[in-house]
Design a protein that fits this description.
Length: 259
């Protein structure tokens, strides 16, 4: 690829990603604009980001969808490539995006497959690949739901297309990192259930736990990834149980104490 910059704004959301942000931003130097929206990191994330762009902003993460919509609104270009700090754009994807924008894209957005990693190991099964997400889009046609605090729904006007090349997603540093992430996400899920006053029974949760494990480990062949596949299948089932347990704690704390 020549030195001409691609007419796209890369938007990266960060918080305490000093050990990963450099490789992420190195992979998108070819983009005409790089925007980093940082959630008041206490490490060197903002300092490192400023080595690559002067468009580094600080904003407290409130609702994830609202936070991301705000970040996309800062883009100077109509086309936005959305990344997280633990992701990398491959040379093949760079070339594919540049060629697409140069030839004239016919869709409002494109899904991109992702290779998910546990440490340095690519996880191929259990629903972890291709794990395609809508990441390249026209900002005027795209918006996240601003109500959901975890896993917000993306909305975009059709038509949409798909790209062939991958984003590399270093999902978890190790098992400990995966457990910490599960803890944070189930905190948010339990809070959501509590606000909604959701009615959840023990047996329905048990059924969902087993279903999620079974689908990941057997239905989607997670067992072919060995110990990592087993860990991720258990992790998937535990998401339901931990969300329920934390929700139960909140409800119990709300009840008046007996004299």
């Amino acid at each position: 690829m020549n030195s001409e910059k691609a007419p796209v704004s890369v938007v990266v959301i960060t918080k305490n990603e000093a050990d990963r942000i450099r490789e992420c931003l190195e992979s998108v130097r070819w983009a005409d604009e790089i925007i980093v929206v940082d959630d008041f990191s206490t490490d060197d994330t903002p300092k490192i980001a400023k080595e690559f762009t002067d468009r580094v902003f600080s904003r407290k993460m409130d609702i994830e969808g609202r936070h991301r919509n705000h970040a996309y609104g800062l883009a100077s270009h109509e086309w936005v490539l959305s990344l997280d700090a633990d992701e990398r754009v491959t040379p093949e994807l760079r070339e594919e995006i540049a060629a697409l924008l140069k030839s004239g894209a016919t869709c409002n957005g494109y899904t991109i497959p992702r290779k998910n990693f546990m440490g340095k190991t690519w996880v191929r099964y259990g629903g972890m690949y291709p794990s395609a997400q809508l990441r390249l889009f026209k900002k005027s046609a795209f918006k996240y739901d601003e109500q959901a605090e975890v896993h917000p729904q993306a909305y975009m006007k059709d038509p949409r297309g798909s790209l062939k090349s991958d984003i590399l997603h270093y999902t978890y540093r190790d098992f400990t990192d995966a457990i910490a992430k599960l803890d944070r996400q189930t905190d948010l899920e339990a809070q959501k259930w509590f606000r909604e006053k959701r009615r959840v029974g023990v047996f329905s949760i048990l059924r969902k736990m087993v279903d999620r494990f079974w689908r990941a480990y057997f239905g989607k062949e997670g067992h072919r990834d060995g110990v990592i596949g087993l860990f991720l299948a258990v992790n998937s089932g535990m998401y339901q149980f931990l969300s329920f347990a934390k929700y139960w704690e909140m409800k119990k704390a709300e009840q008046p104490k007996r004299p």
